[in-house]
Automatic annotation (TrEMBL):
Belongs to the glycosyl hydrolase 1 family. Homodimer. Residues 1-21 form the signal peptide. It comes from Chrysodeixis includens (Soybean looper). One of its GO terms (biological process) is carbohydrate metabolic process. This is beta-glucosidase. PROSITE patterns: GLYCOSYL_HYDROL_F1_1 (PS00572), GLYCOSYL_HYDROL_F1_2 (PS00653). Pfam families: Glyco_hydro_1.
Length: 508
């Protein structure tokens, strides 16, 4: 008895120390290092880089339609018709990834390139060929493919049926996911069903992004509801029919901007929690919490407002008990996008007759003037918010395994991007503290983005790339920035280098 306990301890001791030998060495040399098993990668999305919007059988997506019908709504009338022409540059782009030394590449699959009409009775063989070629090239270069099934480019033909506001969309998404798993399940092991439902439901169906629903307080909730149902259905199918044969894992990417109370007052702290629940809990609570379903604050606020506004039922739809059960726990890991932080104050509490998400949430959001700016109005550099976000997720959802699927900063064009180096370095230090000091379980980090690309309503004006893209050259030449050199060093050594100097952002 004593022997076997002793033996177990001994084996444990050996395991722990062999895994952490390098870390121990680095601690002694006072370097900030991630473990051998931590993965570094970069991310992109189909509409933002592929171009080739109308070739080889691809169907029209809502972003094709929207940018063509409403060019005036997009910065300088830009669109993704050509974008970075990545559809034609599989080898070149994988070479960029290989030069970065990253372990994984997160890309998304264009639904309408695979199913031109959105429906699975018509599969576009060229779409299958394109992604097979990309995946094979990645694997040849020992880069793990991480595929997002939906990064906002819904087939227009499905939008014509109401898109994410029509409950039938969940069935069609399930059909699409089946086609993806049948064709790519043997070569892709890491799947994300959706990217940032908060963005495509709020901005797409309740705001100005494609398809331009502008029906906040109604369509955004319907979109979220059907997206959650669709996610649960796909995860259950994956679990039952594909997990054992593909040996894959599946998650969903949610975005959490950190919400910090503007003052220590009880109202502002409550406002911060309400904002976290509306913006993140909306999707995280049904999937990642013990109880499932929508967060209680959201349920009660929307129910109460709907009643006061004279509606016979809540504007926030209700799940059946079976749906709650199918959605709850439908994850192997959480994909997290995090960029920035906001301050929260309690809203004015005037319930408007015209409903909206903002009115339901009733929180005033701002940023501090002295937080460093980026080239995006919504994005300021606040590294400590990243650590707080990770800790809040740990505390609220039973410390799930997390893959950071996006983190990044926009700056004006230029190759000597020390501000981007500083941003990544500061956010990685915050992440390191969250893992090693706080015990958050994060197994990888993807920088957004591999290269400059079509930044939705901001066109090509806001640049997030490690590689600069020259939009004036017909070749769309990619050139590594200083940040690409920095990130190469991080990806290859697993440690934050100290020879890039000029680290200026406070991390706590
Ligand atoms: C595809 O779109 C481009 C504009 O981006 C247009 O010039 C071209 O004629 C279109 N091709 C087809 C086959 O419709
Ligand atoms: C998958 O494999 C595990 C372990 O071999 C087994 O217990 C489980 O029943 C399998 N699941 C399905 C759906 O076949
Ligand atoms: C972003 O950079 C452009 C110049 O490339 C500038 O005109 C614009 O004002 C900047 N936007 C922000 C929010 O800093
Ligand atoms: C564009 O690419 C072609 C083929 O690689 C090359 O011959 C040409 O010099 C490039 N042009 C520019 C302007 O970079």
């Amino acid at each position: 008895m004593l022997n076997s306990i002793y033996l177990n301890c001994f084996i444990y001791f050996i395991l722990v120390f062999s895994v952490q030998a390098r870390d121990l060495k680095n601690v002694l040399e006072s370097k900030t290092c991630f473990s051998n098993y931590f993965a570094f990668g970069v991310a992109t999305a189909s509409y933002q880089i592929e171009g080739a919007w109308n070739v080889s059988g691809k169907g029209e997506s809502i972003w094709d339609r929207y940018t063509h019908e409403h060019p005036e709504r997009v910065f300088d009338h830009h669109n993704g018709d050509v974008a970075d022409a990545s559809y034609y540059k599989v080898k070149e782009d994988v070479r960029l990834l290989s030069q970065l030394g990253v372990g994984f590449y997160r890309f998304s699959i264009s639904w309408s390139r695979i199913l031109p009409d959105g429906l699975s009775n018509n599969v576009n063989e060229d779409g299958i060929r394109y992604y097979k070629e990309l995946i094979d090239e990645l694997r040849k270069n020992k880069i793990t493919p991480v595929a997002t099934m939906y990064h906002w480019d819904l087939p227009q033909s499905l939008q014509d049926l109401g898109g994410w506001t029509n409950p039938i969309i969940a069935d069609y998404f399930l059909d699409y996911a089946r086609v993806l798993l049948d064709n790519f399940g043997d070569t892709v092991q890491v799947w994300l069903t959706f990217n940032e439902p908060l963005s495509f439901c709020s901005d797409g169906y309740g705001g100005d992004d494609a398809p331009g629903g502008r029906s906040s307080g109604f369509e955004d909730y319907m979109c979220g509801h059907n997206m959650l149902r669709a996610h649960g259905m796909v995860y259950r199918m994956f679990d039952q029919k594909y997990r054992n044969t593909t040996k894959g894992i599946m998650g969903v990417t949610l975005n959490l901007p950190w919400m910090e109370p503007a003052t220590t007052s009880q109202e502002d702290q409550k406002a911060a929690d309400t904002a976290r629940q509306f913006m993140f809990g909306w999707f995280a609570h049904p999937i990642f919490s013990q109880d499932g379903d929508y967060p209680a604050v959201m349920r009660s606020a929307v129910d109460a407002n709907s009643k006061r506004q004279g509606f016979p039922r809540s504007r926030l739809p209700k799940f059946t008990a079976e749906e709650v059960k199918a959605i709850r726990g439908s994850y192997d890991f959480m994909g997290l996008n995090h960029y920035t932080t906001y301050l929260t104050k309690q809203g004015s509490r005037k319930i408007k007759t015209k409903p909206s998400f903002d009115d339901d949430m009733n929180v005033r959001i701002s940023q501090k003037d002295d937080w460093p700016k980026s080239n995006s109005t919504w994005l300021r550099v606040v590294p400590w918010g990243f650590r707080k976000s990770l800790n809040w997720i740990k505390a609220n959802y039973n410390n799930p395994q997390i893959l950071v699927t996006e983190n990044g900063v926009s700056l004006e064009p230029g190759l000597h991007d020390t501000k981007r180096v500083n941003y990544i370095d500061a956010y990685l230090r915050a992440l390191h503290a969250a893992i090693f000091k706080d015990g958050c379980r994060v197994f990888g980090y993807a920088y957004w983005s591999l290269m400059d690309n079509f930044e939705w309503m901001r066109g090509f004006s806001e640049r997030f790339g490690l590689y600069e893209v020259d939009y004036k050259s017909p070749n769309l030449t990619r050139t590594p920035r200083l940040s690409a050199k920095y990130f190469t060093s991080v990806a290859k050594t697993g440690c934050l280098p100290d020879d890039f100097a000029d680290y200026t952002y406070k991390t706590d």
